[in-house]
Hints:
By secondary structure, the protein is mainly beta. It has three domains: 3-118, CATH 2.40.50.140; 122-219, CATH 2.40.50.140; 225-290, CATH 2.40.50. It contains one helix and 21 strands. The strands form four sheets. A five-stranded antiparallel beta sheet has the order 4-3-2-5-8. The protein starts with 7 loop residues before the first strand and ends in a 13-residue tail after the last strand.
Amino acid sequence: MSAASLPYSRPAPTRITCVDNRTNRRAKSYEVSKNEIKIASYKTTTISALSDGVRAFIAPVDGEIALFETGRAYIIKNYTLSHKFGRECIFLNPNSKKFQTASFELPEEAERSAKYLLNPPTALLSGEEQDLFTRGGFISLKGEIEKLQVPRMTRVRDGEVPIRDLSLRCGQVAVEVSLWRDEALVELSLGDHIEISCLRASLKPSPKLNSSSYSAVEKTVAEPVEVELTFIGVLEGDGGATVLLSDAYEEYTVPAALALDIAADDLPIKLTLTHRNKTVQSIEPLGEMFEGMFEEV
């Protein structure tokens, strides 16, 4: 078996450039108290992205001080090269030597490949793509949380970690998502609009997307949506607003500023409106049937 195929090898001296560094603070252990999962301790790791002009490597170290300085070139000897985690990892040991050397220009592709080891590219999709679970690579999605389970602990190779399942409404489809580890403990509620980056697809036992160590969960402002709906109920809301009930039993609030006047006898009625998270931004006039439903202001 060749040295390159072993999980660990001791290669020849190598000239490399540090392209970038990234410090991560992730949960190291968890505790469960009164059915609530909390982070018990954290681990800080700083990762250097390196390149020799052809191959890209990472060099992780515990703590906040990187092994290599961004933009510097080095010749390293007696280091350990690991292939164990599917990426080429450089580890320095007490016998390793790290010499600074003259800088050298990296090809654009080599520099990009090294940066991708720290921040991989992720495609922002609609969620309605036919190849959503088969396209490969990292995926980012925006949507509204339609279903949300409480976090629970599950066993993986390195112990027990939190997981939280949710359904994300993306346009006309609901996408099943599992948030793992730190992301499972982000404070979320039903109806929240969120963006999740760097998701990975899995097909078994059923298609879903999973968060990764690169993922971030961020709350977003809902985008305006134009819909044509049939309304079957009306009531007076707070502050002069009107609340309309659709035939799917969803409630839409029309602010008083729109001065909409619909009586029960006008129902059912079909309206085209633009809303943001069920708050109506505008209503499109529908000709004669709409005349008289706006009060003069």
